[in-house]
């Protein structure tokens, strides 16, 4: 099985998994006699399962086609470098930011998040300019907080800086 | 109509709103120009700014962003040879070669002027057609609305890029996510797991901010550190008269522009496909109809004219179903719908009766924003080129913070911030799986509309499904939806689709 097919299969299985989970939950919705609040979710769940199944099956049938086309096109575009680690770091940072947003507050957390995220996303070959990053992070955080507080009447969580 | 329009202009021509719109057009152009940022994002991020404004000021700002961002894509399409938005893909074909030949300013001038003409044309069409459509739509009942929602969903799910199975799955999943919360008609709680915040379902704006903006930041994390940054070419504005091209060239391109404008408008009205399709379609048609088709792709201004007129003509087109039926035609109008709702305005046929002056304020704002776009984009070009160089690793984290602010601002609760994170991860998953996002969004928005009207329709006819097929308008739309799926299946089985099919699929 080619890598492309394996990917399509994984996608199909993920689709099927989500569909079945929704089907189970739709079944637990009270009702199920005649047309009621459970009707549309049940119909949707069945449709989702069918589509998930189609995708899973197509991963097998496309096997022959994919193999043929890969031999026709030897000059594929250069693969872009992907970094799952950077994605995980970014997700972790965002998660941390949201978790601590309430208790620590918007101004402090935003400055910390921005500073760390700038570092994580700095392109390879670029110098990490700590001082500049800190300045941008603190200024951005402060400007957004005050702008929304004073001009747009939106009170972002102040947290520790509750003055 | 004229006195209503006069009132509209009266409202827009206040210092406060004019300044807001100037800012809106400028920010919009930047969002359109920087690859990776989009009109949808621009509107989503600026929404929290409008919370405390009145509907007139707020909506004027949002449409200014919309107009600016739709046009801004041409800057990077010509200077960087990367389309800033999908709606400027065809601009690259001829804009890029023109830039290489040292005619960058001419390409930009042509692009901007015809963007402007396309926008104006479509807004005038909107002003004449929309009130008539609204009159027709007034007589629509649940059967018709259900059928139109199903039709729109089918269109967007089957026409999105990639496989039809994935498109349909994305659309259905969108409806499934919209069923979270209290059900219409008998108010049963569904899929809330006892979480009280889920009673109202996920907010439309958190879904969109997550899927478009948060997912974009995660996407950058994956490849951004190794991306090769292309330098924007420089253009000299010295010795430039007018907009950099002659009156003769302008006259020569008028037939091409009118044709492209009509294509852009018609494609824009259809739900599901918009400027991303019409610019390619009108480019293909312009090339076929040209006297020397071989010069296209080598730096013929006709290519830029076709693409830019068509994508901007989509603005008026996409606003039509939004304002008259409350159905967004694409993701940008979907988020505009969110903006309307935040200001307590329900788009639909009644809008023209209950909020007549406001409707014409929006029309006036669209017209004024186009004029602003024309001058700002051309004469402020060098400033916008500088902004193209703002590094992404600084820009995107700041955008994420603005997303958080926007989500929190919706109803001052952290639950919405968690929602954008959830949908951001889902949106990233969609990108990885090659699944189109647009059907999911439209499914999420139209799902409740389809379900509510299905239930109401069934109640009216005592649970009889046949009434959906005996109603002429509903039957037509349902029949069209079915025919469309069958046609798509047929062309998928056939080895090669026609030119039209290929253009629609890209």
From TrEMBL, chain A:
<dbReference type="InterPro" id="IPR009936">
    <property type="entry name" value="DUF1468"/>
</dbReference>
<feature type="transmembrane region" description="Helical">
    <location>
        <begin position="94"/>
        <end position="116"/>
    </location>
</feature>
<feature type="transmembrane region" description="Helical">
    <location>
        <begin position="35"/>
        <end position="54"/>
    </location>
</feature>
<feature type="domain" description="DUF1468">
    <location>
        <begin position="11"/>
        <end position="157"/>
    </location>
</feature>
<protein>
    <submittedName>
        <fullName>Tripartite tricarboxylate transporter TctB family protein</fullName>
    </submittedName>
</protein>
<keyword id="KW-0472">Membrane</keyword>
<keyword id="KW-1133">Transmembrane helix</keyword>
<feature type="transmembrane region" description="Helical">
    <location>
        <begin position="9"/>
        <end position="29"/>
    </location>
</feature>
<keyword id="KW-0812">Transmembrane</keyword>
<dbReference type="Pfam" id="PF07331">
    <property type="entry name" value="TctB"/>
</dbReference>
<feature type="transmembrane region" description="Helical">
    <location>
        <begin position="128"/>
        <end position="148"/>
    </location>
</feature>
TrEMBL record, chain B:
<feature type="transmembrane region" description="Helical">
    <location>
        <begin position="262"/>
        <end position="286"/>
    </location>
</feature>
<feature type="transmembrane region" description="Helical">
    <location>
        <begin position="417"/>
        <end position="447"/>
    </location>
</feature>
<feature type="transmembrane region" description="Helical">
    <location>
        <begin position="59"/>
        <end position="80"/>
    </location>
</feature>
<keyword id="KW-1133">Transmembrane helix</keyword>
<feature type="transmembrane region" description="Helical">
    <location>
        <begin position="393"/>
        <end position="411"/>
    </location>
</feature>
<keyword id="KW-0812">Transmembrane</keyword>
<feature type="transmembrane region" description="Helical">
    <location>
        <begin position="358"/>
        <end position="381"/>
    </location>
</feature>
<feature type="transmembrane region" description="Helical">
    <location>
        <begin position="200"/>
        <end position="221"/>
    </location>
</feature>
<feature type="domain" description="DUF112">
    <location>
        <begin position="18"/>
        <end position="442"/>
    </location>
</feature>
<feature type="transmembrane region" description="Helical">
    <location>
        <begin position="468"/>
        <end position="490"/>
    </location>
</feature>
<feature type="transmembrane region" description="Helical">
    <location>
        <begin position="107"/>
        <end position="133"/>
    </location>
</feature>
<dbReference type="InterPro" id="IPR002823">
    <property type="entry name" value="DUF112_TM"/>
</dbReference>
<feature type="transmembrane region" description="Helical">
    <location>
        <begin position="20"/>
        <end position="47"/>
    </location>
</feature>
<feature type="transmembrane region" description="Helical">
    <location>
        <begin position="145"/>
        <end position="162"/>
    </location>
</feature>
<feature type="transmembrane region" description="Helical">
    <location>
        <begin position="325"/>
        <end position="346"/>
    </location>
</feature>
<keyword id="KW-0472">Membrane</keyword>
<feature type="transmembrane region" description="Helical">
    <location>
        <begin position="168"/>
        <end position="188"/>
    </location>
</feature>
<protein>
    <submittedName>
        <fullName>Tat pathway signal protein</fullName>
    </submittedName>
</protein>
<dbReference type="Pfam" id="PF01970">
    <property type="entry name" value="TctA"/>
</dbReference>
């Amino acid at each position: 099985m080619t890598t492309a097919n394996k990917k399509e299969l994984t996608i199909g299985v993920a689709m099927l998994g989500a569909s079945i989970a929704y089907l189970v939950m739709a079944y637990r919705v009270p009702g199920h006699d005649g047309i009621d609040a459970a009707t549309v979710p049940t119909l949707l769940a069945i449709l989702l399962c069918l589509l998930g199944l189609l995708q899973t099956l197509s991963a097998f049938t496309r096997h022959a086609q994919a193999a043929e086309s890969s031999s026709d096109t030897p000059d594929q575009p250069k693969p872009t470098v992907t970094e799952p680690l950077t994605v995980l770091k970014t997700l972790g940072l965002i998660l941390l930011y949201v978790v601590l947003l309430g208790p620590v507050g918007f101004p402090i957390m935003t400055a910390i998040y921005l500073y760390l995220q700038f570092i994580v996303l700095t392109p390879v070959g670029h110098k990490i300019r700590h001082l500049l990053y800190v300045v941008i992070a603190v200024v951005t955080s402060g400007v957004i907080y005050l702008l929304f507080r004073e001009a747009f009447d939106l009170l972002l969580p102040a947290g520790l800086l509750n003055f | 109509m004229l006195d209503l329009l006069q009132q509209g202009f009266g409202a827009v021509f206040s210092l406060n709103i004019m300044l807001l719109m100037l800012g809106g057009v400028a920010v919009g152009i930047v969002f359109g120009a920087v690859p990776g940022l989009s009109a949808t994002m621009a509107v989503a991020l600026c929404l929290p700014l409008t919370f405390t404004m009145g509907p007139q000021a707020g909506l004027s700002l949002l449409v200014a962003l919309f107009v600016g961002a739709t046009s801004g894509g041409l800057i990077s399409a010509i200077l960087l040879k990367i389309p800033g938005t999908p709606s400027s893909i065809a601009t690259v074909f001829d804009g890029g070669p023109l830039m290489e030949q040292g005619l960058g300013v001419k390409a930009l001038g042509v692009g901007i002027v015809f963007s402007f003409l396309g926008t104006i044309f479509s807004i005038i069409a909107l002003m004449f057609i929309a009130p008539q459509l609204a009159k027709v739509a007034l007589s629509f009942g649940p059967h018709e609305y259900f059928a139109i929602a199903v039709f729109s969903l089918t269109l967007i799910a089957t026409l999105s890029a990639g496989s039809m199975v994935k498109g349909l799955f994305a659309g259905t999943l969108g409806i499934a996510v919209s069923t979270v919360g209290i059900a219409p008609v008998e108010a049963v709680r569904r899929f809330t797991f006892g979480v009280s915040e889920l009673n109202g379902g996920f907010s439309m704006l958190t879904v969109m901010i997550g899927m478009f903006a948060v997912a974009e930041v995660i996407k950058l994390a994956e490849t951004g550190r190794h991306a090769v940054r292309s330098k924007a070419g420089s253009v000299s504005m010295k010795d430039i008269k007018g907009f950099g091209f002659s009156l003769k060239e302008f006259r020569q391109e008028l037939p091409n522009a009118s044709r492209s404008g009509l294509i852009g408008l018609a494609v824009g009205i259809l739900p599901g496909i918009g400027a991303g399709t019409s610019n390619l379609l009108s480019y293909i048609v312009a090339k076929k109809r040209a006297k020397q088709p071989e010069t296209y792709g080598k730096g013929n201004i006709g290519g830029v004219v076709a693409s830019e007129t068509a994508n901007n003509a989509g603005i008026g087109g996409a606003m039509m179903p939004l304002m008259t039926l409350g159905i967004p035609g694409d993701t940008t109008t979907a988020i505009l719908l969110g903006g309307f709702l935040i200001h307590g305005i329900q788009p639909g046929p009644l809008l023209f009766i209950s909020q007549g002056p406001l409707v014409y304020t929006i029309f006036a704002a669209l017209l004024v924003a186009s004029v602003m776009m024309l001058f700002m984009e051309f004469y402020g070009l060098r400033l916008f080129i500088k902004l193209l160089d703002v590094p992404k690793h600084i820009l995107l984290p700041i955008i994420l913070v603005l997303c958080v602010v926007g989500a929190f601002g919706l109803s001052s609760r952290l639950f919405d911030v968690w929602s954008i994170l959830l949908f951001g991860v889902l949106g990233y998953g969609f990108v990885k799986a090659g699944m189109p996002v647009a059907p999911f969004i439209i499914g999420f928005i139209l799902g409740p509309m389809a379900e509510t009207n299905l239930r109401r329709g069934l109640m009216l006819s005592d649970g009889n499904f046949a009434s959906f097929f005996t109603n002429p308008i509903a039957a037509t739309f349902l029949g069209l939806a079915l025919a469309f799926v069958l046609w798509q299946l047929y062309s998928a089985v056939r080895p090669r689709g026609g030119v039209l099919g290929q253009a629609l699929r890209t």
